[in-house]
């Protein structure tokens, strides 16, 4: 019985280590931003890099779903309007 329990615990330990995946550098918040950007750019193909430099709508640019990079949405219209019209900083 003890041998069976030790075997089961050993098998469980091996399986749990096998399932752990290393986090890519570009997703690791503990890495410096320069390393994260370099890693993300190295993983992107030329088409993905080109697409990210162009807008997909008035206030957004696409992400890279394959790498888990989300869309980028901007919202600076009202802030600039308040600042320009009233001479004060926007919200």
TL;DR of this structure?
This protein is mostly helical and 91 residues long. It has four helices and two strands, in the order αααββα. It comes from Bacteroides ovatus (strain ATCC 8483 / DSM 1896 / JCM 5824 / BCRC 10623 / CCUG 4943 / NCTC 11153).
Please supply descriptive tags for the structure shown above:
single chain, 91 residues, mainly alpha, two-stranded antiparallel sheet, 2 strands
Helix and strand topology:
Layout: H1 2-19, H2 33-43, H3 46-52, E1 60-61, E2 72-73, H4 77-86
Antiparallel strand pairs: 1-2
Can you put this structure into words, describing what you see?
A two-stranded antiparallel ribbon has the order 1-2. The protein has 91 residues and is mainly alpha-helical. It contains 4 helices and 2 strands; from the N terminus they run αααββα. The protein has one domain. Helices cover 51% and strands 4% of the residues. The protein is elongated. This is Beta-glucosidase. InterPro entries: Glyco_hydro_3_N_sf.
- Name the assembly state: single chain
State the domain count: 1
Strand % is under 5%
Whole-number mean pLDDT: 77
Helix and strand succession?
HHHEEH
How many E-type strands?
2
Structural class: mainly alpha
């Amino acid at each position: 019985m003890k041998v069976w329990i030790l075997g089961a615990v050993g098998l469980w330990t091996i399986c749990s280590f096998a399932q752990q995946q290393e986090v890519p550098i570009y997703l690791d918040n503990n890495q410096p931003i320069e390393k994260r950007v370099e890693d993300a750019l190295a993983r992107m193909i030329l088409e993905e890099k080109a697409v990210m430099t162009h807008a997909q709508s008035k206030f957004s640019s696409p992400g890279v779903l394959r790498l888990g990079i989300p869309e980028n949405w901007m919202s600076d219209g009202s802030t600039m309007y308040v600042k320009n019209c009233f001479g004060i900083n926007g919200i």
